[in-house]
């Protein structure tokens, strides 16, 4: 017998009575003194969702950074137009090797639904509700949402040491994001755009002059009295665009040196007022200080950002997402950069033209007693330095950081050797440098996770290699770094080694990388 109500509740259908179809519990059951069991056709409709919607929901659940259940990774629901645009970029997003984040109970739990306790029938969370909306809807432009999503899917996983730091980085970035979604969202969108340019698909929707707009906002931030964390996030984002934008690879003058100079002035002005850096500010400063240190060692000047700004007790005892265990070694690298600056000034004073590559940089020369004393003292400090283990990390993670730290220490010793004994000055000095280069490479492997952050040590070691077999290993190692980090600076560094250093040595020209970096300053920045 047919039921009297096609869309009635479960109890009315069983009783074959007319249901008034009031939701969530019908009035007929209430008048009959019964507890309504709800409506079965709701579940049926949910199961008959189109295949495209089901596929889209599966994609969002497995790949979206907004779906992470870590504290702080909570964004507004993504609107439908933004979702459509995200599908346009799928091929670009998933062309690289997927990143396997560490699973946890928090990340594997079912999504929290705001309607779970208000209905008698549990309905799966709608696919567009990716997380709880603690950033107000509309705070981020819908056109920016796909680019912000690309940032969270690609940038942390590509650049930090390993998965242990991805959620930490996202959490800290989103703390600033939630306080100023428009400004930070614009910065993250610029990074996402830079990643999407690195593909062969015809991508539309880029915002013209976004970087110029961010720079203009940055100039006004200090006068507007915004938080230091927002300033640091903006500068860090601009540096990130310089690192990953493929348009910056050929013939582009990097803006990172200018950004470091402006950052140094901002920090000095901030601390001069008697203010202190928060832990969140130090977290961002550490990332910028590492870039500043690599710039100082490459261009032979003192670091713009003093290590005392960010090297506190916490940084001394814990691994950093970019520096690993080398954070406590940064004061020694600062001394090394200062010594390089002093030597460079003396060379410029001795040169008639004042130009380094016209002087006697690579010729045997007698250093002053004070310079030799500084070099010997620094050599003793570097040889006695040992990394401090982070008790919170596993053996496998600590092993990777230890290899990286010892590679940095040995490369610093090689750098110091070449300051006093330039490349090509004598056969004995070159043989000593080659042995030191081997010692650097002993602490590296061909594993991506182990090699990821070793660009500077591998660069210094590669410059000393002469045989085809050694150069093949160095080329493979540099290629691994370029594949797993995909930064413009890594590509430029590899090209500098092959096209400048090795080519000059093979042709009998001056192959001292320190001289060549002064001659071609925009081709080398091993960050």
TrEMBL record:
<dbReference type="GO" id="GO:0045944">
    <property type="term" value="P:positive regulation of transcription by RNA polymerase II"/>
</dbReference>
<keyword id="KW-0539">Nucleus</keyword>
<keyword id="KW-0805">Transcription regulation</keyword>
<dbReference type="GO" id="GO:0005634">
    <property type="term" value="C:nucleus"/>
</dbReference>
<dbReference type="GO" id="GO:0000976">
    <property type="term" value="F:transcription cis-regulatory region binding"/>
</dbReference>
<dbReference type="GO" id="GO:0008270">
    <property type="term" value="F:zinc ion binding"/>
</dbReference>
<dbReference type="InterPro" id="IPR001138">
    <property type="entry name" value="Zn2Cys6_DnaBD"/>
</dbReference>
<dbReference type="Pfam" id="PF11951">
    <property type="entry name" value="Fungal_trans_2"/>
</dbReference>
<dbReference type="InterPro" id="IPR021858">
    <property type="entry name" value="Fun_TF"/>
</dbReference>
<dbReference type="InterPro" id="IPR036864">
    <property type="entry name" value="Zn2-C6_fun-type_DNA-bd_sf"/>
</dbReference>
<feature type="domain" description="Zn(2)-C6 fungal-type">
    <location>
        <begin position="8"/>
        <end position="37"/>
    </location>
</feature>
<dbReference type="Pfam" id="PF00172">
    <property type="entry name" value="Zn_clus"/>
</dbReference>
<protein>
    <recommendedName>
        <fullName>Zn(2)-C6 fungal-type domain-containing protein</fullName>
    </recommendedName>
</protein>
<keyword id="KW-0238">DNA-binding</keyword>
<keyword id="KW-0804">Transcription</keyword>
<dbReference type="GO" id="GO:0000981">
    <property type="term" value="F:DNA-binding transcription factor activity, RNA polymerase II-specific"/>
</dbReference>
